[in-house]
Write a structure and sequence with these properties.
61 strands; about 10% helix; globular
Length: about 850
C-alpha cells in the first residue's frame, strides 16, 4: 500500500467494551466450528505481487462450505485497498463486478449495507478515500451500535468501530440537522453535497424534481436556486440540498449573503482518516468473536467479511456461499473462519444475496465472478471494496502457459495460451511469433498456439521465450607491455614524470557488448487418447408440432472418459427424412411421426430418437463403443501380481422369507467363487458370511475400512445416505489413508454409486476429490454393490462399476449375479466381470 500500516487499534464506547468483556467466549483462537471440517479442497493463485486468491471447498459435518478469500499484503507500496462506487452515475446501484471493473480493481467484494428499494441508494457507513472524506450518514449507531466500520488513520492504525457522525449547518440564527454528507436517499431532510459526489446536480434533479440548493463559497451563501433548478458545485465550496417543502417550512430563514458554517463531529476526526468504509456488525475484536448485533442475520447465511491481521500487515476479504449447495456460515463460524485466515479484528460486510467475490486471475482479462450468489445472479449493490495494483507494466520476468483443452482426441486440436508476467504479475500478451513451442510425448502439428496431435498418449508442451537482456559496458583488456630500462639522462626525469602523470589521468577506453539473452520457459501437460464413444445431451427428443425444432449436442469421450464437444464437427443422418431434416445440429420437424438421427464422429456413432406429436416412438440401433482397454481375462498366476476378487451384496434383508437350504447354498456358491483364485477377497455389500477366509479379506460392515497391499489401496466406503450423512469423518480418513499409502491404484468399494447420492453437490464434490488422484496418474475404481444389474462406465479418468446383489427384491436368487476379478501389477490393471 502507499501508506504505512502498523497494527490494529480498537476504539469503542466504554459500554461496548464492558459488554465484550462480560460476554467474551473462553478459549483459544482455535475455536471449534459449529460445522466441523472433515476435508478441504483448496486452490491458491497469486493475482499480483502481494495479493493471493484462494478457493476452499470444505466438507463439514453439516454440508459443503464454499469459501473464497483474497489476502492483501498491506506493506506493498504499489497496492491500494479502498471502497469504490458506480462510475456511471453517483448513487446508482450496479453489480460488484461492474463497479470494480470500471474502477480498475483486480479483485474485491461487495461492501456496505444499503437501501434495497429502487435503482439508487447510499451506503450506511462513512467513506474516506486517499484522505478525502467522500460521504457519511448521520442516522446510524446513535441509539445503539449496529453497523460497524473499518478505519485506517493517517498514522497507519487499523480501527474497527461503530462509527457515528453528526452534521449541522448554521447561519448563527438557525441550524439544520443534515441527514448526510453526500449520501442521497429519499431527500426528506437536507444533505451536504460537494464534488466528491458530482460536479453538478443534473443527475440528482432527474431523480427529484423539486430540490432547492444553497451554494456556499468561503463560508457564505452565494446563491439559492429555484425549485428543480440545476446548479454546478463550486470548486471551493459545497451545496446544501433539500426538497422545496423543507425549504419553505424549515429553511426560510436563510438568505444569500449569510455567513454560515458546517459543524461535523465523528467517532474519529475525518481529518485523521486515510481510508474508511462501512459494513455490518463487528465480527472479531482482539482475536475473539464479537457479539452479533441485531442486524446480523441469524443462522447459516451467505456472508461477506473484511479483516486485518494483528500486525496490521495483511487484509483478508472473504465470501462464504449459502442457500445453495454451500450451506453458508453462522456469525460464530464466520468469526472462526476469518481468524483461521489470520484476521485479528474483522467486521461483517453486507451478506445474503449481496455476497459477491470477483477476481482477475491469470486466465481472466477483467475481474470475473468467482462465487455463486444465492440469487443465482449478481445483486446490484451500492459499493464494493477493491484491491488496486498501481504499478506500471514492466518487462517480462517470467512466462506462463495455460491449456484450454487438457484432454483431446485425434481430430480435435488443443488450444494453448502463452503470456508474460512482469515483476508485479501484470499479464503481458504474447503472440505465437514471440515464443517457440514444442510438444514432447506425441507427434503433431502446430498452427500458432493450436496443436493437432497425430499420435496418442500423454504429452508435455514447453513454451520458450527469449528475453533480450540488452547490452553492458565493459573495459577491454590491454595487453601487458615489457617494462623499459630507465634512462640515465636525468635532465628528462621531470618531463617523464609529467608525461606519466598525464597518462594516468586519461579515461580508460570502454566498449558495449550484448548480454547473453535469458531463456524463459513454461510447461503444460495434456493427453490425446482415442475416441471410445459418443454421447448426447438428450437421446429421446419430443417435439410437439410440425415446424418446431430441437438441437442435438454431441460429446466425444476418450478411453479415459474425458469428453470434448464435437457438436459442430459431427455428421447427422435422419433415418426417415419425411419426419424431419437436419441443418447443422438442428432438427426441424416436417411431419408427425418418429424417427432417429444417427450422429457420427471419430469412427463412432450414437443415436437420438426424435418423436413429433404423439406418434409411437421408434427404436434406434445401439451406439458403438470401444471396449475398455483395462477389461480382459484375469486368471491367477504366480507372477507377483495382486489378484483381487470383489462381490456385491450377499445377504438378504429378511432371510426368513427364503428357504434355509436355498439361502445357505446360494451364499456358499458365491463365497466359493470369491475365495478362489485371489490374494484378497472383498465382500462389498451387506454380508452375513463370517467364517475366516484362506486369503486376506475385507468384509462389509457398514463402516469405513482400508487395506494397502502390493501397490493397491482398497477402501470400504459407507455411503447409503451419501458419505456425509452416513459418516462425514470418512472424507478425512480416506484422504489421509490414500495420501499416506501413495499407491498407484485405488479401489473404492461402496454401497451407493455417486450418481445416486441424495445430494448432487456432494456427488460432484466426491468426484473432484477423486480427480486429484487421477491427475497424479493413479488408476481409480469406484465399485458399488446395489440393484440387480452389472454396469460399467468411465468418466473423467475414474472407472465406475456396479456389481449386482445376490438376491432380487422378492427373495429369489439373481441370475445376473457376478463378481469382479482384478489383476494389479504396478500401474497395469486388468479387470473382468465374472458371472457366478
Amino acid at each position: 500500500m502507499k501508506k504505512k500500516f502498523y497494527a490494529v487499534k480498537r476504539i469503542l464506547a466504554a459500554v461496548l467494551t464492558a459488554s465484550i468483556i462480560c460476554s467474551a467466549v473462553a478459549g483459544s483462537v482455535a475455536t471449534v466450528f459449529a460445522a466441523q471440517a472433515v476435508y478441504e479442497q483448496k486452490t491458491t493463485e497469486t493475482l499480483t505481487r502481494g495479493v493471493t486468491y484462494e478457493e476452499n471447498s470444505r466438507m463439514t459435518t453439516n454440508g459443503i462450505q464454499n469459501i473464497y478469500v483474497v489476502k492483501v499484503d498491506l506493506t506493498e507500496s504499489t497496492l491500494e485497498l479502498k471502497e469504490v462506487e458506480s462510475k456511471t452515475e453517483y448513487g446508482l446501484k450496479e453489480t460488484t463486478q461492474k463497479i470494480l471493473t470500471d474502477n480498475g480493481a483486480i479483485a474485491g467484494v461487495n461492501s456496505d449495507f444499503f437501501g434495497m428499494a429502487g435503482k439508487y441508494s447510499a451506503g450506511f457507513g462513512p467513506v474516506v478515500r486517499d484522505g478525502q472524506r467522500v460521504s457519511a450518514g448521520t442516522s446510524v449507531n446513535h441509539d445503539k451500535n449496529q453497523y460497524g466500520s473499518y478505519v485506517l488513520d493517517k498514522n497507519g492504525n487499523s480501527v474497527f468501530t461503530y462509527f457515528k457522525t453528526t452534521a449541522k449547518f448554521t447561519n448563527g440564527t438557525r441550524t439544520m440537522d443534515l441527514a448526510s454528507i453526500n449520501k442521497v436517499t429519499s431527500m426528506v431532510f437536507p444533505i451536504y453535497f460537494d464534488k466528491q459526489a458530482a460536479s453538478s446536480t443534473a443527475d440528482l434533479d432527474k431523480r427529484f424534481g423539486d430540490l432547492v440548493k444553497f451554494v456556499v463559497q468561503n463560508n457564505t451563501i452565494t446563491y439559492i436556486s429555484g425549485s428543480g433548478e440545476t446548479v454546478n458545485v463550486p470548486d471551493d465550496g459545497y451545496l446544501i440540498v433539500m426538497n422545496n417543502n423543507y425549504y419553505t417550512k424549515d429553511a426560510w430563514g436563510y438568505k444569500v449573503g449569510d455567513n454560515v458554517s458546517m459543524q461535523v463531529t465523528s467517532t474519529i476526526d475525518f481529518d485523521q482518516i486515510d481510508t474508511a468504509f462501512g459494513g455490518g456488525g463487528l465480527l472479531l475484536l482482539k482475536g475473539q468473536e464479537a457479539p452479533a448485533t441485531n442486524i446480523v442475520a441469524a443462522g447459516r447465511q451467505p456472508r461477506t467479511a473484511f479483516g486485518v491481521s494483528q500486525d496490521g500487515k495483511t487484509a483478508i476479504l472473504m465470501v462464504v456461499d449459502g442457500r445453495g449447495e454451500s450451506i453458508g456460515a453462522t456469525h460464530a463460524e464466520m468469526a472462526a473462519l476469518m481468524r483461521s485466515y489470520g484476521a485479528y479484528e474483522a467486521l461483517h460486510l453486507d451478506g445474503g444475496g449481496s455476497s459477491t467475490m470477483v477476481a482477475k486471475t491469470v486466465d481472466d482479462t477483467v475481474p470475473q465472478l468467482k462465487n455463486v450468489p444465492s440469487d443465482q445472479a449478481q445483486r446490484k449493490v451500492i459499493a464494493s471494496v477493491g484491491v488496486f495494483q498501481n504499478a506500471p507494466m514492466g518487462e517480462i520476468e517470467e512466462i506462463g502457459i495455460t491449456n484450454e483443452n487438457e484432454h483431446t482426441q485425434p481430430g480435435k486440436p488443443a488450444e494453448f495460451k502463452v503470456y508474460g508476467l512482469d515483476a508485479y504479475k501484470n499479464k503481458i500478451p504474447l503472440s505465437p511469433a514471440d515464443v517457440t513451442l514444442e510438444a514432447n510425448g506425441v507427434a503433431g502439428n502446430w498452427n500458432g498456439f493450436t496443436f493437432s496431435p497425430t499420435t496418442i498418449g500423454e504429452y508435455t508442451v514447453t513454451a520458450t521465450y527469449t528475453k533480450n537482456m540488452g547490452t553492458s559496458v565493459v573495459t577491454p583488456q590491454v595487453p601487458e607491455q615489457t617494462e623499459e630500462e630507465p634512462m640515465e639522462n636525468t635532465e628528462n626525469e621531470e618531463e617523464n614524470t609529467e608525461e606519466n602523470t598525464e597518462t594516468e589521468e586519461q579515461p580508460q577506453e570502454t566498449e558495449t557488448q550484448p548480454v547473453q539473452p535469458q531463456m524463459l520457459t513454461a510447461t503444460a501437460n495434456a493427453t490425446c487418447y482415442p475416441t471410445a464413444r459418443l454421447g448426447v445431451a438428450n437421446n429421446d427428443i419430443k417435439i410437439k408440432d410440425v415446424g418446431q425444432y430441437a438441437k442435438i449436442y454431441v460429446t466425444a469421450y476418450d478411453t479415459q472418459g474425458f469428453g470434448r464437444a464435437v457438436t459442430n464437427d459431427a455428421t447427422y443422418t435422419v433415418a426417415n427424412p419425411a419426419i424431419g431434416t437436419m441443418s447443422g445440429n438442428v432438427f426441424t420437424a416436417k411431419s408427425k411421426g418418429s424417427t432417429y438421427v444417427k450422429c457420427s464422429w471419430g469412427g463412432h456413432d450414437t443415436y437420438v430418437v426424435v418423436t413429433v406429436g404423439k406418434a409411437p416412438k421408434v427404436s434406434a440401433p445401439s451406439s458403438t463403443a470401444t471396449p475398455d482397454q483395462m477389461k480382459g481375462i484375469v486368471e491367477k498366476q504366480n507372477d507377483g501380481a495382486l489378484y483381487l476378487n470383489i462381490t456385491g451384496q450377499i445377504s438378504y434383508g429378511n432371510p426368513s422369507k427364503i428357504d434355509g437350504a436355498t439361502y445357505q447354498a446360494q451364499r456358499n456358491r458365491v463365497r466359493a467363487a470369491a475365495d478362489s483364485g485371489a490374494d484378497v477377497t472383498v465382500y462389498g455389500g451387506p454380508c452375513d458370511v463370517y467364517t475366516p477366509t484362506v486369503q486376506d479379506s475385507l468384509t462389509w460392515n457398514g463402516s469405513y475400512g482400508f487395506m494397502s497391499k502390493k501397490g493397491a489401496s482398497i477402501v470400504l466406503l459407507a455411503a447409503s445416505k451419501g458419505i456425509r450423512a452416513t459418516d462425514p469423518s470418512q472424507y478425512g480418513r480416506l484422504a489421509m489413508d490414500l495420501d499416506a499409502a501413495n499407491d498407484d491404484n485405488i479401489i473404492i468399494v461402496t454401497d451407493l454409486t455417486p450418481s445416486d447420492y441424495p445430494s448432487a453437490a456432494e456427488a460432484n464434490y466426491f468426484r473432484a476429490m477423486l480427480h486429484k488422484y487421477v491427475a497424479q496418474g493413479k488408476n481409480v475404481f469406484v465399485i458399488s454393490g446395489t440393484g440387480t444389474a452389472y454396469w460399467a462406465s468411465v468418466k473423467d479418468g475414474v472407472r465406475y462399476i456396479n456389481l449386482p446383489d445376490l438376491w432380487r427384491p422378492d427373495g429369489t436368487p439373481n441370475g445376473n449375479v457376478c463378481m469382479l476379478k482384478l489383476r494389479i501389477d504396478g500401474k497395469t490393471v486388468t479387470y473382468q466381470p465374472v458371472k457366478i
